[in-house]
Every structure is written in structure tokens, then in C-alpha cells.
Amino acid sequence: EEAFQTISPSANAGNPVEVAEVIARQVRRLTKSAFVAVLAHLPQAQRLASYSTVHYGDAEQAGMIQLDLRQRSINSHVLETRTPYYAPDLSYDPYNFIYYAWDHEMQAAYCTPLLVQREVIGTIYLTSTIVDGIAADDRNFIEKLAPHASIALHHATLMRAERIQRQDQARELAEVRDYAIATEAVAWFGITAADRQHTLAQKLGSLRYCTDTLQAWAQLKGVAGDECIEEIIQDLNSVADEIQAMKSQTTGTPTEM
After folding, report:
1. Nearest C-alpha neighbor of 127 from the set 140, 141, 111, 113
2. What are the residue ranges of helices labelled H in the chain?
3. In angstroms, what CA-CA distances link 32 with 56, 59, 195, 214?
4. Positive or negative, the Cα torsion across 249, 251, 254, 257?
5. What is the predicted pLDDT for the residue at 255?
6. Using an 8 Å Cβ cutoff, are 95 and 73 in contact?
7. DSSP letter (8 states) at residue 111
8. Tens digit of pLDDT for each residue in 131-161?
9. Whole-angstrom Cα distance, residue 36 to residue 57?
10. Most-buried pick from 11, 99, 174, 248 (CB within 10 A)?
11. pTM above 0.90, yes or no
């Protein structure tokens, strides 16, 4: 129960790497496995890859481990079958593929898929230096942990993608705004003061409408207060204030002939 409660909140930061590290630490702490890795499925590359940190006993080692899914292995078998797999004695296991870089001394292994609506998004893989060294209780714990881990990783991945999208939109909005200001500045001095008042009033109304619409959308989607959204709203309000100031300055100016 403690492990589940630890993993779920970590997803709210929108960082799947951090979530994977929390999962690996919880698995290592509770199973005392010789090796633990949380691996992400990269379907286009036909590989599994560690999110970042892997655990060799109590030691954490940064860097990426990659597994080629075209080669026979316990991980590729689990990915294909979508079911957990236990190899009590790797020397006799038909799916064992020895990766000399990180598990050549291991005698037993357990692997469970990370599923989101029947889609495998990765695996949890752990090993022991003892034949049949992964206890049934530990395997049951990992199997129960896997759905919580899958949801947390998936949620964090979606949040990261949405955050990146909002940042891109904010950057694009800023570029469009700067271009629009530069373009209108060129034509600004070729119109009368009355036309300027009318143009400014239109722009001001459009900006206020965009701001109100964005705030309503943020409330509806539950992202009100998001840093990127707030930055966009502040930019819109800032431009609106500038236009209001310009509008006030042009009031009373004699019409140009």
C-alpha cells in the first residue's frame, strides 16, 4: 500500500523519468533484488530502453540500457504475450538471452508488462543471483504494482506532451504577436487618427475576447493556474493594456488630412 501511495503522486510532476525511478526504488526496497530496471517500449525502434536509472543492488547507475526486441529474451516474450514471466533458473530457461553488460551473473529473473488498455508501454524486470531466488510474495507484489506503475507512467507521459505542446503554442503566439505588431507599425502612420481609434478598439475587443475564452477553456479543462496558460494570459493582458494606452493617447488628436 505504501508503494502504491508513493508512485501515484510522482506522476503529477509530468516527468516519466522521475516516475520510473520511484518505481524502481520501491521494487528494489521491497524485493531486495540484485537488479531492477523499468523499461519503456519503443515500438518504432523495436527496442525496450531504461528510462534512466537502473539498480544494481543498493547502487543506482545512470545511463540507458537498450534491449533489441528482435532477439529472443524474457522481455521480448513478455512484450509479445502481455503476461508476467518467471524464470527460476536462467541456465535452463528457453527465453533467456544473456546481456553480458548487466545480467551475466544472474540466476533467476522475473518480468511483468506495463499495460495501458492492452497496449504494452514497457516492462519491470528484476533478477536474483540465486536460483529460484525471487519469492512468490515478491512476484505477486510486482504483479499488483504493475497497473499502478503503468497508469502513473502513462499519466506523466501525457502531461509532459501537453506541457510541451502548450509551450510550443505560447512560443508561436509570441512570434505571431511580434510579427503582427511589426507589420501594423509600418502601416500605422498612413491612416487618420479616427481610423486609428477604430482599429485600436477592434484590436482591444479581440484581445479581451481571446483572454476570456482562454480563461474559460482553462477552467473547463482543469488547467487553470498552469504556468504556460498564465503566461499567455499575462501576455494578452499586457498587449491589451498597451493598446488601451495608445487608444487614450490618440483621443482628441485632430484628424489628419
Report:
1. 111
2. 2-10, 16-31, 74-81, 136-188, 193-221, 227-250
3. 10, 12, 76, 50
4. positive
5. 38
6. yes
7. E
8. 999 999 999 999 998 998 888 888 888 887 7
9. 8
10. 11
11. no
